[in-house]
Design brief:
Helix content of chain D: over 70%
Shape of chain A: elongated
Number of helices of chain A: 25
Largest interface: A-B, 56 and 72 residues
Strand content of chain D: under 5%
Strand order of the largest sheet of chain A: 1-2
Distance between the termini of chain A: 90 Å
Helix content of chain A: over 70%
CATH architecture of chain D: Orthogonal Bundle
Shape of chain D: elongated
Number of strands of chain D: 0
Number of strands of chain A: 2
Order of helices and strands of chain D: HHH
Largest sheet of chain A: 2 strands, antiparallel
Strand content of chain A: under 5%
Chains: A mainly alpha (638), B mainly alpha (516), C mainly alpha (505), D mainly alpha (101)
Order of helices and strands of chain A: HHEEHHHHHHHHHHHHHHHHHHHHHHH
Oligomer: heterotetramer
Distance between the termini of chain D: 54 Å
CATH class of chain D: Mainly Alpha
Radius of gyration of chain A: 33 Å
Chain lengths: 638, 516, 505, 101
């Protein structure tokens, strides 16, 4: 099995390095194909590992080589394929295989075709390290690696200022969180003496709660950054400047879920500190609602989907925080499928619309883009959690978990958010595919994407439809490692009321969205009363949070930096020069002592002698009358 | 030959430098490269012959110099110094190989060879005065390099560099003389041998003063806030090769000296001053990173970033445990490689455009993709990306210091944020966006000569990031013996507790916890 | 009435006079040769002088051997005192003179060297200095001092330029005042103790427990003033820069070494017994002198525009630095003084010789003085070897290791450390940093500036215009001594320490 | 009133002080030389008196040497003075200021 582990891990690296060989050359179709094949190989290996694990096989644990070893610290490159990581591997390799294939078409006309595959495969590699590593340091490698690749891919079109800005924003915000993560790692090391999961986790049981709380909080700060939780969420929406396959792979299916993965991976830690878990769950619920609300009014197709991703991440954290780790993981997986599908569909639309992102400028596209329409509709249904699509199973279990744990506020928020989710998803579908063909005003001639792109997307389509059936086997698989349990609500009636109620609520939201938007005919120009309402503005401007960051963080930072530089030059450096100048100026001022006139020179000599003489006399007198002087001094109280 | 390999390493370049006067101007570059390669090969041989399992000094040489005053020519390397020596010879070789056409190439190469002698000398000397000799002597070639080949303010910059470091090291010299005097009082013989000094246990009050005296010399060299202001000038004005060697090797003298002198000689004082030094280190990290962010000149960005990174090294050193010190030694190598490469990279664009202002660039990634790639790799290494050389050192340094102070490490960790800010923004300004200036439109990409210098550095950056063991292991062994020495010598309660006892089985969890 | 003189020749120990008499004989011989046949070439006199100096050196070796075997030797009615200090100082004096004299063999013709009197006076001067250091008797010291000084005034004046006359007059007048101070100081001490022998004075004063400390100090003040003049201690230093500027570079270099070591030895004899008796006044005054002289001279050197004048101030500073030895007063400090001065003599003579070989007859427009800094601009490009040599002398003066002066410097600072003068040690160290600036300034001019056009044209000939093989050899000696000093420090240190220790200092 | 040692010494000191004042005040080189002669001769008086007081010849010997040295000093001094006068036609101290700073 180790063989497959290595193949799964290193095939993406090989792919990346192979593609990198051609970065400076012109576009080569075969680069994309070979890269896709290599990623597919990784997928196949992962599948073999999955069957191995599913078949009750041993956890595959290898130690490739030493990375760092100093003092008591020992960090190997160790990899583990257990129930959790194999799930993640499947998600990662599957989605990335599809995205790779899709990208061959999507990036067809791009100059940086080869470079794109290099980055994309590098991302897959980093993600594999992240999920497969058997220690926190290895996790951190992947953690930073995906951050790096995300930077490279968001800023892929580096001629666009906004893209590179977004790339930097994403990187820096993640760095803020990474600091928390790093501190968490240090805490783990100094308290348990190791960073290996299988040594550190058992050791947690012996630590006091305050230490564990610290560890939990700091690790979660790391997770917050990568999973774009409030208040570090702004980068995710801005990250949509990257190519759409990137958004599908990184900012929907895989990287952003790394935070969730971390919490799930550290379940043994978080189980010991339920109060932190509750905080995580509350924050998750809040983010779910918060992000969904922003998605309601946004006029950028990709940003809407990004906010929806954010909202779904909130769900996952809510589940994980409540201790329903397996549910979180399951939702993570299901979400990866339908969200990637949604993004790739959006990519098709963008291609068709020549990179136009405002759904109000589209409309009626279902005529020209039938395949895409179907896929996006189904993905949206899955997202909304309509039976029998994937989202239904995963999301509903989260709601059940919240209910069963008696966190009614969280439950309520999540249910309400489910309605919002349905609304904004179908607002998007309605605006894009139904109604009048508003794009004609802008003289755009949309066309369907390459067929192979659609075919590449089809596995996701299928999974988005049927992922629910995996719930049972998945539960069985992770049961042991995640200490999972089914959530049983005592009364069957309650269960049914909840289920049907939610479904009806969601269905109503969909209908409302269709009713409101499917016959939309104009492009809003900011004059309608709704667009001028306070709520709309608040939501449209993302609660003014990016503005606040710009105004109260970025600008002050710039100003303080500039000021510091002035301080450096005018205070620190000037004082050094000042000290040096004291000598020079003193020299300059006193050099006239040497006036060159013999008379003055002689006077200096005599003056020196007289000075010494008077000192001598004073000293002589003092010595002679020392007794008297001492008496006087003591009289004075000296 | 192995018995005298260190002497050969030191004096071969000097001899070659003297002989260099006889070489024809046109052939000088080839000569310089050959000498550089031989020296580098010798230093690799040193590594090859080095026994990683021995923690003490190896290849020791001992010649009486002024025995009546206790000054002897004693050389030796251990894991701490070995790699810095190799790095010094590596950078001299690469520096000469990538030297772009300047006036007086001959003088430049001869100067570089002399500089190499002093660099190797500093890191192999095991006698206080011999160390000091090379330490001071290294200023002279650098003074010449900055002053003769530098920018418009070169004379100011070089003189400032010289006098500032000179003044600091004179205070250190007084400290050394005191140290020797105390040794004389204790034993009745004069000795400046570091290994002899190691055996001397001083009362804490003496340690404090001596620590302070040594600190002035080292802090200016490192350079630590607020003594750092010579560095931006020196880097800003120096020619590429000067900046490269200054950043890669010369700055390491200060941090190396902390580990070689301050820690083992004054363990109690090190503990006493740990917090103040850490605070200075944190100021270095954050403050200079912010100043770096405010720069308009890309070379100044890299220069200030050096100061910032040196802060992490200092912090790791004053972690006073094996993890931290090993990390800081490793980071010395890492920072040397990375900042050296970054200065080389800045030099590449300076050669083409004769300006270093970032506002003059923009969109270079379109015109010079290879350059942008290498710059990007090095930038990411500098930012501390895992699997690149700097990360190992930074991680270990911060990890080490965490056992001493939670809050301060948290503050110091801001390094990874602010570091990313200035580097990414600088990179964006230079490489991203559209090409706005007409002059930039037809810039040639990196040429072969530049690649000769850059590619090995890229390889090392990634190699040692992925597999630091060959370097980290000897470092670790030597650092363990240093820490053990400190633990044994510590007299105060606090110092005994904060400096771990390495030979003890494992740091038990309880003791680690108590340290919080 | 008078009792018959009854002294055996042996007890006079006339051999103690041998080293001093040799140069006098040489001087007379030169005068006689000139009388018999005039218009002989200077090279003859140079060689004769060297020969006599070598003889002198040989005699000194003999004395040194006697000293090593028997300890301190007194001679000639106990007026002569041959102890370690005297021998060491004479070694320095004679050796430096041997190095100096060939500098007369210049390429260009200079007024003073065409007169044989120059060489005669020179030898007289050396004899004077030798008497000065080899005696314990205030009268003989005075005689030696004046013999040497009067010869020296004349030698300076013989350079035959307006500035040299001015320098000679200034030096002479101030020297006369200093002589007055010296004799008055001697008179006070004589009045107090009835003796003019320093060791007797010391004994008598110690026996009566410094009862009249006020009067003792008055005497000490005048003696101190006169030696402060000789050692150019601020504020008695004002003659130094002018005299150095007025005399030829070679002479200036010589003056920075030989008269000072003589004065140091006498100062050691005169003042250290007071320091050892813990005369606080003197400690305070010397402390102030050391610090002020070092620092102030350095600051003035910073602002000079002429290299020779800069070097003049720098040698004031060096003298201040070395004077710390008298303050500290330990064996280590006194040995450091000699070690320092031996190393200093190499370096400084070398530095001044470098100026000497670049001496021009006519000054171009951009040069206001003989050796203005501008003259050395871009020297590395036109005359690299000379520039490097000059730079090494500068680095040595600045105390950059491993060049000669560094070793003297650390030994001296170490003496301060050992003697308990921590602050003084720091001041001494930091003064090196200030001094670094002006030495580096010359290096900056030589290495980092571009040459002035006319210097390029003559392709650096300017810097070696005055050079001959003889001069180059001297500079070669100096540079070798400067670079490889570290090899010689150990034997020197042992030698010096033994001699100083056995002399009771 | 009997003239004792102190009187001689006081005379000597007064003369010395006069000499010093002369040295400081005189701008004429020749008069400056006179002042230095006064200095030395003041010392001579002191030496002679002390020598007599102690009944010891050393002081007188010192005085003789001082006289001799003063004479030779003056010879050198006058030589320099004459050269200067020949070249500049003046012996005013204020003319000798070509070097300064």
């Amino acid at each position: 099995m180790e063989k497959y582990l290595y193949i799964a891990l290193f095939a993406p690296l090989v792919s990346s390095m192979f593609s990198a060989l051609f970065t400076n050359g012109p576009k080569k179709q075969f680069v994309g194909i070979i890269a896709s094949l290599l990623i597919f190989t990784a997928f196949v290996s992962s599948s073999i590992l999955l069957t191995h694990i599913l078949g009750g096989g041993e956890v595959v644990h290898v130690e490739m080589m030493t990375w760092m070893h100093t003092g008591n610290l020992y960090i190997p490159f160790g990899f583990v394929v257990d129930q959790i990581s194999v799930t993640m591997m499947m998600v990662v390799t599957l989605v990335s295989t599809i995205v790779h294939v899709y990208s061959i078409g999507y990036m067809d006309h791009d100059k940086g075709f080869n470079r794109f595959f290099a980055w994309l495969s590098a991302f897959v590699f980093s993600m594999m390290i992240l999920v497969m590593s058997d220690n926190f340091a290895g996790l951190f490698i992947g953690w930073e690696g995906v951050g790096l690749c995300s930077w490279g891919l968001i800023g892929f079109w580096f001629h666009k200022d906004i893209a590179t800005w977004a790339a930097n924003e994403a990187f820096i915000m993640n760095r803020i969180a990474d600091l928390g993560m790093l501190i968490g790692i240090f805490l783990v090391y100094w308290n348990t003496g190791s960073l290996q999961y299988d040594i550190a986790f058992p050791a947690f049981a012996n630590l006091d709660t305050s230490t564990l709380t610290m560890i939990g909080i700091f690790l979660f700060i790391g997770a917050m950054g990568k999973s774009a939780q409030f208040p570090l969420h702004t980068w995710l929406a801005d990250a949509m400047e990257g190519p759409t396959p990137v958004s599908a792979l990184i900012h929907a299916a895989t990287m952003v879920t790394a935070g969730v993965y971390l919490v799930i991976r550290s379940n043994e830690l978080y189980s010991l500190i339920p109060h932190v878990g509750l905080f995580i769950a509350s924050l998750g619920a809040f983010v779910a609602l918060f992000a969904a609300s922003m998605a309601l009014v946004n006029r950028d197709m990709k940003r809407v989907i990004a906010y929806s991703t954010l909202s779904q991440l909130g769900y996952m954290f809510a589940a994980a925080g409540l201790g329903a780790y397996w549910v979180a993981l399951f939702h993570l997986m299901a979400h990866a499928f339908f969200k990637a599908l949604l993004f790739l569909g959006a990519g098709n639309v963008m291609h068709a619309m020549h990179d136009e992102l405002d759904p109000f400028k589209m409309g009626g596209l279902k005529k020209v883009m039938k395949g895409t329409w179907i896929m996006m509709t189904i993905a949206s249904l899955a997202l909304a959690g309509i039976f029998p699509f994937a989202g239904f199973f995963s999301k509903d279990t989260i709601l059940e978990a919240a209910f069963a744990e008696h966190h009614m506020v969280i439950y309520g928020v999540l249910v309400f958010t489910a309605g919002l989710t349905a609304f904004y998803s179908f607002r998007l579908v309605a605006l894009i595919f139904h109604g009048e063909e508003r794009y004609k005003i802008f003289g755009i001639h949309p066309h369907e994407a390459y067929k192979f792109m659609l075919i590449a997307m089809s596995p996701l389509l299928i999974l988005a439809m049927i992922a629910g059936v995996f719930q049972e086997p998945f539960f069985n698989m992770v049961e042991e490692i995640l200490g999972a349990m089914e959530y049983h609500i005592h009364s069957h009636v309650t269960v049914w009321i909840m289920l049907v109620g939610t479904q009806v609520f969601v269905g109503l939201a969909i209908l409302f969205a269709y009713k409101k938007y499917s016959s939309w005919s104009t492009v809003p120009d900011g004059s309608s009363p709704m667009e001028n309402s306070f709520i709309y503005k608040l939501l449209y401007n993302q609660y003014y949070i990016p503005f606040a960051y710009e105004e109260y963080v970025v600008k002050p930072y710039n100003e303080i930096s500039a000021m510091m530089w002035e301080v450096d030059k005018k205070v620190v450096d000037a004082s050094v020069d000042g000290i040096a100048n004291i000598f020079y100026t003193t020299g300059e001022k006193t050099r006239d002592m040497q006036s060159g006139n013999l008379s003055t020179m002689l006077k200096w000599m005599v003056a020196g002698t007289v000075g010494l003489l008077s000192l001598a006399v004073v000293f002589g007198l003092a010595a002679r009358y020392s007794d008297e002087i001492l008496a006087i001094l003591s009289g004075l109280g000296v | 030959m192995l018995d005298h390999i260190l002497s050969i390493l030191i004096f071969f370049p000097a001899l070659a430098g003297v002989m260099g006067f006889m070489i024809n101007k046109e052939s000088m570059r080839a000569y310089g490269v050959s000498v550089g390669i031989i020296e580098f090969a010798l230093s690799l041989w040193l590594w090859f012959a080095f026994d990683s399992n021995v923690s003490g000094m190896q290849f020791m040489e001992h010649l009486p110099l002024i025995p009546s005053f206790g000054i002897n020519y004693i050389l030796g390397v251990d894991g701490i110094s070995l790699f810095i020596v190799i790095m010094a010879s590596l950078f001299t070789m690469l520096g000469i190989a990538s030297l772009t056409d300047t006036k007086n190439v001959k003088n430049m190469i001869i100067t570089l060879l002399f500089l190499q002698m002093t660099m190797v000398g500093v890191f192999t000397a095991l006698d206080g005065i011999v160390f000091y000799v090379f330490w001071e002597l290294s200023l002279v070639p650098m003074l010449y390099i900055i002053g003769a080949w530098g920018g418009p303010m070169r004379i100011y910059a070089s003189v400032k560099f010289f006098l500032y470091t000179f003044a600091g090291s004179l205070v250190m010299l007084v400290g050394m003389l005191f140290m020797a005097y105390f040794y004389y009082q204790a034993t009745g013989t004069w000795s400046f041998a570091i290994l002899d000094w190691y055996r001397l246990i001083l009362p804490e009050s003496f340690q404090l003063w001596l620590f302070a005296a040594f600190f002035v010399g080292f802090a200016i060299k490192v350079p630590m806030f607020p003594f750092h202001t010579w560095l931006p000038y020196a880097h800003g004005q120096a020619p590429t090769i000067g900046s490269v060697i200054l950043a890669a090797v010369l700055l390491k003298m200060g941090t190396y000296a902390f580990i070689r002198f301050s820690l083992p000689l004054f363990p109690d004082a090190s503990v006493y001053f740990m917090y103040p030094v850490a605070v200075i280190a944190i100021i270095m990290i954050i403050y200079t990173a912010m100043v770096a962010y405010a720069q308009k000149d890309v070379k100044q960005v890299v220069a200030y970033s050096s100061v910032s990174h040196m802060g992490v090294i200092i912090l790791g050193t004053f972690a006073l445990n094996v993890e931290g010190i090993s990390g800081s030694v490793f980071l010395m190598i890492g920072h040397g490689i990375v900042s050296g490469a970054l200065f080389l990279l800045v030099g590449v664009i300076y050669d083409r455009r004769h300006t270093k202002l970032m506002s003059e660039f923009g969109g270079l990634a379109h015109v010079m993709p290879k350059y942008a790639t290498i710059f990007g790799i090095m930038m990411m290494a500098s930012v501390g990306m895992p699997l690149m050389i700097n990360f190992v050192g930074e991680f270990l340094s911060l990890l080490g210091f965490y056992s001493q102070s939670h809050m301060l490490t948290l503050l110091a960790g801001v390094a990874i944020i602010v570091g990313a800010i200035y580097m990414l923004i600088a990179y964006k300004r230079m490489f991203f966006g559209e090409v706005t200036k007409e002059e930039n439109r037809n810039l040639p990409d990196v040429n072969k000569r530049e690649l000769i210098a850059l590619v090995p550095l890229v390889i090392i950056t990634i190699w040692l990031g992925v597999y630091p063991k060959p370097v980290l292991e000897p470092i670790n062994n030597s650092v363990e013996s240093v820490v053990q020495l400190m633990h044994n010598k510590a007299t105060t309660e606090d110092a005994k507790m904060r400096i771990p006892n390495v030979s003890g089985v494992v740091i038990s969890k309880t003791s680690a916890k108590e340290a919080h | 009435m008078l009792s018959p003189i009854n002294i055996s020749i042996e007890s006079l120990n006339l051999v103690t006079l041998a080293p001093m008499l040799i140069p006098f004989v040489g001087a007379l011989m030169i005068l006689v040769i000139d009388l018999l046949k005039g218009n002989l070439d200077k090279s003859l006199y140079v060689v004769i002088s060297i020969l006599f100096l070598v003889l002198d050196f040989g005699a000194l070796l003999d004395s040194a051997g006697m000293f090593s075997a028997n300890g301190i030797i007194l001679g000639v009615f106990n007026v002569m005192l041959i102890d370690g200090l005297a021998i060491l100082a004479q070694f320095i004096i004679v050796a430096t003179s041997i190095l100096f004299i060939p500098l007369a063999l210049t390429n260009k013709r200079f007024h003073e060297f065409s007169h044989p009197e120059f060489f005669a006076l020179f030898l007289f001067m050396i004899g004077g200095f030798q008497f000065m250091v080899a005696s314990d008797n205030l009268i003989l010291i005075f005689v030696g001092l004046e013999t040497a000084s009067l010869a020296l005034y004349t030698l300076i004046a013989m350079h035959n330029r307006d500035k040299s006359f001015e320098a000679a007059i200034k030096y002479f007048t101030m020297g006369a005042l200093a002589a007055g101070f010296y004799s008055f100081g001697s008179m006070v001490l004589y009045a107090l103790t009835g003796s003019v022998e320093i060791n007797q004075i010391a004994t008598i004063l110690a026996n009566n427990g410094y009862a009249d400390i006020g009067f003792v100090l008055v005497g000490v003040v005048f003696l101190l003033a006169s030696f402060a003049f000789k050692l150019s201690v601020v504020p008695f230093h004002t003659w130094t820069p002018d005299v150095y500027e007025g005399s030829s570079a070679a002479m200036a270099g010589y003056m920075s070494i030989v008269p000072k070591i003589a004065a140091f030895v006498v100062a050691m004899r005169l003042f250290e017994f007071l320091i050892h008796s813990h005369v606080v006044w003197l400690e305070v005054v010397l402390y102030a002198f050391v610090v002020i002289t070092m620092t102030a001279a350095n600051m003035w050197a910073l602002v000079q525009t002429d290299v020779k004048r800069m070097l003049a101030y720098s040698s004031i500073s060096h003298a201040g630095f070395v004077m710390a030895a008298i303050l500290i007063g330990t064996t280590q400090a006194n040995s450091a003084l000699f070690l320092y001065w031996i190393l200093f003599s190499f370096t400084n003579l070398g530095a001044f010789s470098m100026l000497w070989i670049s001496r021009q007859k006519e000054l171009p427009g951009y040069q206001k003085t003989d050796h203005s800094f501008e003259k050395f601009s871009g020297m590395i490009q036109t005359s690299p070897m000379a520039a490097i040599v000059m730079a090494i002398f500068m680095l040595s003066l600045a105390g950059i290791p491993p060049f000669a002066l560094f070793w003297g410097k650390i030994y001296m600072i170490s003496a301060a450390v050992t003697g308990g003068y921590t602050i003084l040690a720091l001041v001494m160290a930091l003064n090196s940093a200030i001094a670094g600036y002006y030495y580096i300034k010359l290096i900056v001019y030589m290495f980092m500036k571009d040459p002035i056009a006319s210097n390029v044209d003559n392709s650096g000939h300017l810097y070696v215009a005055n050079a001959t093989t003889a001069l180059k050899t001297i500079i070669g000696f100096a540079i070798l001594g400067t670079i490889f000093a570290f090899l010689a420090v150990d034997p020197l240190l042992e030698f010096v320490t033994t001699f100083v220790y056995n002399s009771g200092y | 009133m009997e003239i004792g040692l102190n009187h001689y010494l006081i005379l000597s000191t007064i003369l010395f002080a006069i000499g010093l004042v002369g040295i400081m005040r005189r701008k004429n080189l020749l008069l400056l030389f006179f002042a230095t002669e006064i200095l030395l001769n003041a010392v001579n008086i002191g030496f002679a008196a002390i020598s007599h007081y102690y009944g010891d010849l050393t002081g007188q010997m010192f005085a003789f040497f001082v006289i001799a040295i003063a004479a030779s000093e003056l010879a050198v001094g006058l030589g320099l003075l004459i050269v200067w006068y020949k070249r500049h036609g003046t012996i005013d101290l204020d003319t000798m200021t070509s070097m300064r700073g």
